[in-house]
Amino acid sequence: MDESEARAFLSTRFGAIDDVEQFQRGEWSKAFGYRRRGEEYVVRFSTFRDDFEKDRLAGRYSSRALPVPQVIEIGEALGGFYAITPRVRGEFLESLDEARMRQILPSLFAALDAAREIDLSSASGYGLWNGELRGQNASWREMLLNIGQTVPPERVAGWRERLEASPTGAEPFDAAYDRLRALVDGCPEERHLVHSDLLYYNVLVAGDRVSAVLDWGSSIYGDFLWDIAWFTFWSPWYPAWSRIDFAAAAASHYRAVGIPVPRFAERLRCYEIRIGLSGMSYQAWKGHWGELAATAKRTLQIADAS
Questions:
Q1: Helix 246-257 and helix 225-234: axis angle, to 10°?
Q2: Which residues pair with 19 in a beta bridge?
Q3: Distance CA 178, CA 181 (A)
Q4: Helix, strand, coil in percent for the chain, rounding step 5
Q5: pLDDT, greater one: 247 or 305
Q6: CA distance 304 to 295
């Protein structure tokens, strides 16, 4: 898929379109901006329709605190699927320096609060959920431990074999997994809407507010602290944020809004290990050996902490 193919598809589907622009490619989809009748849109192409259906469902939860672009249309295209949403302008979260990131944190925490408060009484299960609001795991602890078997396999088939054959090997993964097993019993069986991919160009900001939370394909049901752990684990990859203590900022926020978070540090540590293990499996599948080594080191440091 390239810009000319996207333009041809859009012209066939809608007629006159202008200003087709290719965005940064994600792992599971490719996105293009375009203009039609004076309005701006984004079209994404993927082999996984379920991701787009989850975006459509997440749009129902959109609010001022948690702005989610509405999916206008989903259909088949070029051997896969497409989804169209209005284009939202803003800066990607990853582009922010320390001062701007600190400025955005209240709005980011407010977005996570809004997600935590969403009524999921009609949903079931934990972990990755589908268009029928069903998580693929029977319990949160099952989800935490299933990284040893699936992530899920249809997306990164063969990751374990590639990990074992990599320069890093499987020993760091297995050692951290053993520590994960020892920690999961301290994690609550709570079901909240968790984005689970807030970095990697999925959050836009404008001024001092989050302007859009994009791409809900990796979203899970589980403990809301998972999204905090996403930042605490991956923050060393963003040198501009090196002086921001995301865990302390989150703990302060929850105290300020009156949300009790028992076993905060233990839960956060468990999720950091699980996120690291998931990162290792993905990086092994992709053959990103340098990133794999760095993620393994980070994961073991957390797993070995007293």
A1: 160
A2: none
A3: 5
A4: 45, 20, 35
A5: 247
A6: 14
- H-only helix segments in the chain: 3-14, 49-59, 98-116, 140-145, 159-165, 171-183, 225-234, 246-257, 264-286, 289-304
pLDDT tens for 112-150 read 999 999 999 999 999 999 989 999 999 999 999 998 665
Instruction: Determine the residue type at 67.
Output: P
Q: 300 and 271, same structural domain?
A: yes
Task: State the DSSP string of 168-202.
Answer: S-SHHHHHHHHHHHHHGGGS----EEE-S--SSS-
Please name every residue paired with 84 in a beta bridge, in sequence order, or none if there are none.
43, 73
Q: Which residues of 176-194 are buried (b: 16+ CB within 10 A; e: fewer)?
A: bbebbeebbeebeeebbbb
If asked whether residues 171 and 135 sit together in one domain, one would say yes
Range of the domain at 191: 92-304
| Predicted structure pTM score | 0.93
